Structure formats: C-alpha cells, structure tokens
C-alpha cells in the first residue's frame, strides 16, 4: 500500500484502533496499558504547559509522521510529537522537532523500528523513548553536525530530562506523577 492509499484507506474497524503504515503494510497499533497512557498524558501536559509561551509550538498526541526513508510507504505514529509549525488540518505533522515513544514490553520491537525511522526526518532534533515499567528513558539528540550519535543518553529516576531543542527541563520522575511507579522509590 502506498502512503496516499493508506491516508484514504478505511479499515472498516469499529474498535477505533490506530494504524501505522510500515513498509507498505498497514499495522494495527496495540492499545497501551493504563501506565502507558498516564505517562503519555502527563508528558503531553507538562510539555504543553512549557510550550504555552512558544506558540505555535505544541505537543500532539499520536500525530502521524512520515520518515524520509521510503516516504511513499511509511506513516508512523509516535506517542507524542512536538512541532513548531503552524496548525493545519493535515493528517500528519510535517516538521516535528521532538518525537516521543512510550516503551511497553508489548511494543518494544515496533517502537525501536519507529525510532530509527524517525532519525530520517530532517526536522527532528531529539527522540525520547520513555519506559512504562520503570522510571527510565533513553534520549537521542542530533549532534551539532546534523548526525545522530551511536548511542542514546540513558536517563534514570533521579536524572533531569532535558529537551534542548525546545528549552525544556524537568525531573524524569515528574513524567510518572500519575502512575503507580511514582510511589516506588
């Protein structure tokens, strides 16, 4: 299936499951756990509050993006996309700056494949993969020369999450405020 066919496709699925197009194949996205959703919601809220003074920058939940690699047959859906492009009625975000995935045990392979596809999008400066089973994350930040590092920056429960491309900094633990993980030490 091509990207154009996918964007006009009706899967006739009454459940409302979200779909991605991965190398020409429509792939249903597995529903996230309550913890996954809480992290996604909390992180979108914290980022949204931070971005209030940077309009039109905004955090968008489950916004579609098209990687540059094989762009005619890929449409990926990160958990959160941050963009500073003006709002549109399009089905996708064209110039994301930050992309965030919540990593769950059931979606680890798909999420890692998405992350490497995201590195082909020229506007992306940072990619965050945040765990849903423990307070931890991995951050890929594009180097000054435009290349990506060989390895992500690991973040633990006591670390500060910094997204330099949007001037954001907060304790990583704050992203877990509304989860059962927040009560564990």
Descriptive tags:
185 residues; alpha+beta; tt1808, chain A; six-stranded mixed sheet; two-stranded antiparallel ribbon; 3 helices; 10 strands; 26% strand
Set down the secondary structure blueprint.
Blueprint (H helix, E strand, L loop, with lengths): L2 H6 L10 E4 L2 E4 L5 H18 L6 E4 L18 E4 L12 E8 L4 H11 L7 E6 L4 E6 L11 E4 L3 E4 L4 E4 L14
Parallel strand pairs: 5-6
Antiparallel strand pairs: 1-2, 3-4, 4-5, 6-7, 7-8, 9-10
Could you explain how this protein is built, in words?
The chain is an alpha+beta fold and 185 residues long. It has a single domain, classed as tt1808, chain A (Alpha-Beta Complex). It is built from 3 helices and 10 strands, in the order H-E-E-H-E-E-E-H-E-E-E-E-E. Strand 5, helix 3 and strand 6 (126-131) form a beta-alpha-beta unit. The chain is globular, with a radius of gyration of 16 Å.
